[in-house]
Amino acid sequence: MFYLVTGGAGFIGSHVVDRLLANGKKIICLDNFDNFYDPAIKRRNISEAIKNPDFKLIEGDIRDLKLLKDIFSSHKISHVFHPAARAGVRPSIADPLLYEDVNIKGTMNMLEMAKEFKVENFVFASSSSVYGENKKVPFSESDNVDKPISPYAATKKACEEICFTYRHLYNISITCLRFFTVYGPRQRPEMAIHKFTRLIDEGKKIPMFGDGSSKRDYTYIDDIIDGVMKSLDKRHAFEIFNLGESETTELRKLISLIEKNLGKKAQIDEQPNQPGDVSITYADIEKAKSMLQYNPTTKIEKGIELFIKWYRETK
Ligand code: NAD
């Protein structure tokens, strides 16, 4: 029996791979090492996992249905964790057709495999971006999410709906997890915390979009992994869960925490708000707490300290 992790060399996927290996699972990691950011970073993410005989790397694309059929017919795959995607709001505005292709077609291919090869449990990586400019805070799974404001968010929303359709038609157990800005070791280099840290450390200006009052629910990677593992362990007919810390941090406060931990002052380049960006994300996590026993514990102050420790060790 194998666990298949798509995008298993990426930020979140590689952490899930490590945790599954530590729990004695056999893993297939399917990743195409795309150039969204330097693929050498992804190779480094899995440099320990690759030494483990229970880990098998397949370099390939979730859009390649023939490859997927080969993988599923030659391995008994019981669980799928599917984070492979094009991530990021702003790049999705620049190249929406690519986002549609990878995120929607790729996810449908994975669901086709789950149907054909009778996967026991399928966990899809969705995003808080589906909430768009939701005025009600905190955001809850029962809120209306039919107004996504970027192509990226729209693809995630579409995937959630397609997941529901496959559950309805084919009885597959499916869980969609709406991640709220995830950070920690291995965070993608273009994401704000990582990018700000690097630029401040190098004495360069950081672009700050808006006046610094926008708020995000930043979720530490260990808490996310905990929620993913609980979702893989427990089958649901079809459920959507928010995975956040359920605390918000203003952008200016985030910058000051990074400054404090680096011991360096930021040079801020104030710029207008960007299209597609939302002013707040804030997760209501009561559903995940009660149904998954999800219990995030990492406060932003501690999480930034841990991130910067990792940044210093690996730069
Ligand atoms: P990431 O870019 O580090 O990981 C994605 C991985 O998927 C990469 O290793 C990439 O090479 C791989 N990939 C991309 N296209 C592929 C394809 N066609 N075939 C096979 N592999 C492919 O991103 P991440 O930050 O780890 O995000 C993982 C998932 O979580 C994504 O679906 C993202 O939308 C979602 N998410 C992330 C966050 C966050 O804060 N990081 C927040 C909400 C949702």
Strand content: 15-25%
List unreliable stretches of 5+ residues.
none
Helix segment tally: 11
Bound molecule kinds, no repeats = nicotinamide-adenine-dinucleotide
Q: Give the beta-strand count.
A: 13
Question: What is the first-to-last residue Cα distance?
Answer: 37 Å
In short:
The chain is built from 11 helices and 13 strands.
List the helices and strands and how they pair.
Blueprint: E1 2-6, H1 11-22, E2 27-31, H2 39-45, E3 55-59, H3 65-74, E4 77-82, H4 90-94, H5 96-116, E5 121-127, H6 151-170, E6 174-179, E7 182-183, H7 192-201, E8 205-209, E9 215-216, E10 219-220, H8 221-233, E11 238-243, E12 249-250, H9 251-262, E13 267-271, H10 286-292, H11 300-314
Helix pairs in contact: 1-8, 5-6, 7-9, 7-11, 9-11
Give a verbal description of the structure.
The chain is α/β, with parallel strands linked by helices and 315 residues long. The chain is 42% helix and 18% strand. It is built from eleven helices and 13 strands. It has a seven-stranded parallel β-sheet with strand order 3-2-1-4-5-6-11, with helices on both faces. Strands 7-10 form a two-stranded parallel ribbon. It has a two-stranded parallel sheet with strand order 8-13. Helix 1 packs across helix 8, helix 7 crosses helix 9 and helix 7 crosses helix 11. The model has no long low-confidence stretch (mean pLDDT 97). Bound molecules: nicotinamide-adenine-dinucleotide. The site of nicotinamide-adenine-dinucleotide has 29 residues, from helix 1, strand 2, helix 5 and strand 5. Nicotinamide-adenine-dinucleotide binds next to helix 1, strand 2, helix 5 and strand 5.
